[in-house]
Amino acid sequence: MDGNTDFSGVSDECTAEYILSNVAEVVERILTFVPTKSLLQIACVCRLWMNCARRVLRVQQKLTWVSASGPSNYDGHALCHSLAEEVENVYLLPKTVLVMVDSETFSGQDSCYKQKKARKTHHSPDSVEELNRLFPNGCDIMAIATPGVVLTPSGSHSGPPKEFQEGEAGYAIMFPRMEGVDIRPFHFCKRTISESHLEEAGLVNNPDLRVVLLFGYEAYKPGAARFLNQVLEPLARSKALIAGGHVENVFSPERECCGRGSYGVVGLALSGPRIQGASVLLEQDVSSPKAAEATIRRLKAANLPERNTLGFMFACVGRGHNYYNNQRNVEADTFRKVFPNIPLFGFFGNGEIGCDRIVKEDYTLCDTDTDSLQHGYTTVMTLVHLG
């Protein structure tokens, strides 16, 4: 703007209108204080505002999440209600969303009937459609039900994470589009597994692959173990960090290839030079708070930055307070003690996938046998840094 512009005799309202219509620096600064949903509406006003909104969205790359625990006083899961309220106020444009909810109150009519007689089944087409409506078109949503949930409360990176082995709980992690980071969801069943599909998902022949979060469902079905090995074998030979486990079911994306009750694998492939990761395995003999802390502290050796870093905890349903002499929240509390500024998410499942690994730009990993990636009565504790 010309420093000699004379606004004498011009009303304050006209001056403000001139600035908001012509001075991009001022408009852009103001728009940084506007939540994303309102920002997208503002972008429709004029070309200047649209360009300013685009620039603001490009720099809003800080991870965001919404979490909730119940019981909910509303129809539907507690997380769906929290998302409906809080997603209006997020400061990023979600590109990929990872949702985890407890299977006890999301699996079907029988379990829901026990909780609340008049309650509609959470895992209904209406609930899935409601979840899809909360996020922009083109946003990849991966939604999973598990026997138990580990979450950090909404609103604070330093809030204490909680383990929920029973009761209503869930979270949604929202990943924006980030420079130098490519997050690709994948979903394989016995009809869609092939070398070309693995390559399309970025799991093979991808030198930039850094981290794979992988979740198998209906793992107890005949043929499921052999199927999972088809996915894990090429990953075991890669230099990527693999972490995850066996979950109850997947309700988004909906299964188009195989019917309900079929086994399969879903996950997120994270590629890009900015991504770093580390994981440790809390084996069966780690059964005291002191032993858990000693193992989790090994993650410090990776020396990962804390900004834009997430913690993931994938634990066996047989661990938790049952494994620690009825002491609750042992592993989540220990993680917070070691990493007080990193949020922690995860689940209690029916088997764990992972091992001790560090993935950095200057670190070469050894080959890992497929069998050493699958475990029982263990916990896989993982850090993922997104640059």
List keywords for this structure.
single chain, 387 residues, alpha+beta, 18 strands, globular, disordered N terminus
How would you sum up this structure, described in words?
The chain has 387 residues and is α+β, with helices and mostly antiparallel strands. It folds into 2 domains: 13-59, Monooxygenase, CATH 1.20.1280; 61-386, no CATH class. The chain is built from 11 helices and 18 strands. The protein has helices at residues 12-22, 24-31, 36-42, 47-59, 78-86, 109-115, 125-133, 195-200, 224-236, 289-296, 330-338, and strands spanning 64-69, 94-102, 140-146, 148-151, 162-164, 169-176, 182-189, 209-217, 241-247, 249-252, 264-271, 276-282, 309-316, 344-349, 352-353, 357-359, 374-375, 379-385. Strands 5-4-14-13-18-12-16 form a 7-stranded mixed sheet, covered by helices on one side. Helix 3 (36-42) packs antiparallel against helix 4 (47-59) and helix 10 (289-296) packs across helix 11. The longest helix is centred in the first third of the chain and has 13 residues, at 47-59. It is globular.
